Amino acid sequence: MIGSILESSPDASLGPSEIRIELADSATAPQSSPIALDGDGFEVSRGAESIVIRAGTERGLIHASTNLLEKLGAQFPPGVAPLYPRIETGRLAALEPFRVTPAFKRRAFISDIMTWDYNFPDRLELHLRHDCEFIPWMARRGINAFSYIRHAHDTRLKIDEVAPLLREHGIGVEYGGHVLQLLLPRDRFAEHPEYFPAGDDGVRAARGNLCVSNPDAVALVRQGALAYVHDHPENELLHIWGADVWRGAWCRCGQCRELPPQLQYMKVVNAIASELAADSKAPPIAYLAYHDTIEPHPGLKPLDNVWFEWAPRERCYSHAIDDPTCEINPRYLESLKRYIEIFDGRGHIFEYYADAILFGGLGFATPAVVASDLRAYRQLGLTSISCLTFGAYSVMAYPVNLEAFVRGSEDPDFEPGATLVDTAGGRHPRCAREMAAAYRAVERASKLCLDYADVMHPVMPPEKAARKLNELREAALVFNEAIAAADQIASSVDTRLAGAEKELWRYSSDVLAGMSDYLGALQQTGVHRHIWGAAAITRVTDAFAHIRAIDPEIKGTWGAYDLEWIREMWIRALQRGLDGIGKPAEELF
Ligand SMILES: [Zn+2]
Ligand SMILES: [Zn+2]
């Protein structure tokens, strides 16, 4: 940035998380700060001829160095190389001291292990190329944890190939996910059906979680969890979740049926926690508040090393979590407050700001919602936040939200409007104005769409459907405005990335137009319902051609491969809804 290369050398007088930049050829002693730095906090202080960067941790030092460069005009936008503009050397000398203590202590990204497509070497390679860019970006922006979600069919619990990269960048790892089913191996069923959950009819089956009234089943799960902790000492938070379904995964046997899912689940979690409590090196355990456990039960009695992990997947993203005018969110906020009370403040937030499944793979931007949410979470005393991502696809489709999340994890009072403009400019420096206009349109469209949970599964009461039909049609037109704004980009500018985003918005526009038609079809009866419905579904199906046109290096494994099978699920669900045999949205995932 200053046009010359600085020599670097180790200095025994500096602490392990300290850097001194000499501005002149002097060797004045660094000014050591008397104030201790908490956690990943950092400060940049000034000597007469030097700048000293100190952090509470080494990973804090990576964040601090990036922060310093940002103050000097560098940019670290999601999904593209950093921008280091040329500056006058005087800027460095004029740098004012500053200090940062991240507002949240745990700042995590989360991904489903299956999205690495690890059984296919070429797909895995594609994801790993993304990881090589994304993990350093996370560290530079102050993210300090990465959490893997394992599903019952996964043969891995982490991606070994990225472990060194995470370690080098000081990013902690967390394992677990929907693992209760794995902790009670299904092959035990033949000899011990009594370990497994019973249905309403009392018949036991090798599905769902376990019979929590059976002490041997609980002991088996506890042993499995302890082995897990023992085998993976680097795991910083043990996520022990039940099967990823609504209803039906918990036991309805004579003894269990009086216990609601929350209490059945807590019984298992506490059984594991009581064993781990004696081990000072053991990680805390996360109790997932999600689907049928999102409502706290007053009878919950978590042990001290159990934290709730609140995952409000079906909340509204058109409004902030604490927006009293929203028809959906107040109930969620209430549930969160009660969880905080029951767990004495020990809680993690699991957010969906970049969830390509929830958002149907459409492009969205909700920086103002991210800002208000994070302020609300902080005000409730919570210090742990995380955001689900789908690799490169999330970076392509939700770059503004990722940027908002990393800014907000450091300081929730960040400015959402500027975040959107900076993200557009950072990703598209040669057509910043056009892309900022496009991103603003995407933000307006987002507000019209994100208040009915899964975008691809429009199940709602008739009054809302009548309103939504118009709002989705409008949103489709607003996406066309985004495309029109991007069409203004001069032909001399290389628009490979902008071209990909335009395809994403064409897809988004077509899907929303199709969804609007679909809601219209549902209001019809008889033959009209089927003719209109089939046409609407065709419109949605055809929209995927736009995603297929995007370079796999930009849309990643999820866009290239996973979207193909998820699309089939979406289309089948739309078809079933038309036939009047649709399942409620909450039973699909
Ligand atoms: Zn039972
Ligand atoms: Zn709302």
Overview of the molecule:
The chain is an alpha/beta fold. 44% of the residues lie in helices and 11% in strands. It has helices at 58-71, 89-93, 121-140, 163-168, 180-183, 215-231, 261-276, 329-342, 367-379, 392-397, 399-410, 416-427, 432-449, 462-487, 496-522, 526-548, 552-578; strands at residues 18-22, 42-46, 50-55, 98-100, 106-112, 145-149, 172-177, 235-240, 285-289, 306-310, 347-351, 384-388. The strands form two sheets. The protein has an eight-stranded parallel beta barrel. The protein has a four-stranded antiparallel β-sheet with strand order 1-3-2-4, with helices on one face. A hairpin with a 3-residue loop joins strand 2 (42-46) and strand 3 (50-55). Helix 6 (215-231) crosses helix 7, helix 12 (416-427) crosses helix 13 and helix 16 (526-548) runs antiparallel to helix 17. The longest helix has 27 residues, at 496-522. The two termini are 48 Å apart. The model is unreliable at 585-589 (pLDDT under 50). The structure holds zinc ion (ZN) (2 copies). One zinc ion binds at residues 198, 211, 213, 251, 253, 255-256. One zinc ion binds next to loops.
* Whole-number mean pLDDT: 94
Largest sheet: 8 strands, parallel, barrel
Strand order of the largest sheet: 5-6-7-8-9-10-11-12
Beta content: 5-15%
Span from first to last CA? 48 Å
Number of strands: 12
Along the chain, the helix and strand elements come as EEEHHEEHEHEHHEHEEHEHEHHHHHHHH
Cofactors, ions and other ligands in the entry: zinc ion
Radius of gyration: 25 Å
Shape: globular
Assign the structural class, choosing from mainly alpha, mainly beta, alpha/beta, alpha+beta, or little secondary structure: alpha/beta
Helical content band: 40-55%
Helix segment tally:
17
Unreliable stretches, pLDDT < 50, 5 or more residues?
585-589
